[in-house]
Design brief:
Length: 278
């Protein structure tokens, strides 16, 4: 069965943890304080670069090209998730766990708004959608902060992700540009591959610990499956946001190009003032 919560891990390795004893409700399969003293989970921390850097680049382009501000918020939200996750894994403190997990809900809610059909983002329907997403997000956050129940947070987040995938699949079917459709399918595949690593990290932790005792040290980082989850979700979410930007541009007749540099996709548009629409 797919686990919804990380398995209980062996106790903190360091006798005197740099950030104090962990206060988080989750502790992942990477041993604590074994690589670099100021970082509790080294690989789970630095792997957040795969979330942060693409989103900073994407935000720069989104602002430069004058896309709608909803896409700015998507990139900002995902960047906040990356920074929050960095702090969470570096410290294993509850307050920084929230800095990771609460932006996940908010960012996913923004992404839902970005992908729903035009008729649901304007007028009375648009107000209803925004109100519903705000109520859902605030309700989830309020309950989670009080209950500290990780499975509740994971299920609440999974509901939003499922809604995103369903709506996006429908939108991808109407997109004419094959490069844009490809971005969607590659992005979602990357995200789901990361999700597989997330679950493996939860379910076969003992086996991963054993592998780290027999593998050469330079191969051990490849057994840090939660770090690979960060890589998958970072790359996949970046491509997904690009897909929503491009699909929106195509729908409204705005010219754009899908370009690539060393396998890294990005969009090029003629800069203009951002739309007043959100």
């Amino acid at each position: 069965a797919i686990a919804l919560i990380a398995s209980t891990k062996m106790a903190t390795t360091a006798a005197d943890p740099f950030w104090g004893e962990p206060t988080t409700t989750l502790d992942w399969c990477e041993n604590n304080y074994t690589v670099f003293e100021p970082i509790a989970e080294f690989w789970n921390t630095i792997s957040n670069v795969a979330i942060i850097l693409p989103c900073i680049f994407g935000l720069y382009d989104a602002v430069r090209f004058g896309t709608e501000r909803r896409f700015w918020l998507s990139f900002v939200g995902l960047t906040m998730v990356g920074f929050g996750s960095w702090m969470f894994h570096m410290t294993l403190l509850w307050e920084y766990q929230l800095l990771d997990e609460l932006p996940m809900i908010l960012c996913a809610a923004v992404m839902v708004f970005c992908i729903v059909d035009d008729k649901w983002t304007t007028g009375v329907r648009g107000i209803a959608v925004v109100t519903g997403l705000v109520i859902y997000s605030v309700g989830v956050i309020a309950y989670y902060v009080v209950s500290k129940h990780p499975i509740f947070h994971q299920v609440a987040y999974a509901i939003l992700v499922t809604l995103i995938i369903v709506c996006s699949h429908r939108r991808a079917g109407s997109v004419k540009n094959p490069a844009v459709r490809r971005m969607f399918y590659v992005g979602i595949s990357s995200y789901l591959a990361g999700f597989v690593f997330w679950n493996l990290d939860n379910n076969i932790c003992d086996s991963l610990h054993y592998l780290r005792t027999i593998l050469p040290s330079f191969l051990c980082p490849l057994t840090q499956f939660h770090a690979l989850w960060h890589v998958g979700v970072g790359f996949g979410s970046y491509l997904y946001i690009l897909f929503t930007v491009a699909a929106r541009a195509e729908q409204h007749g705005r010219a754009f190009e899908v370009r690539s540099f060393l396998g890294f996709n990005y969009l090029h548009m003629e800069p203009h003032s951002p739309s007043k629409r959100t």
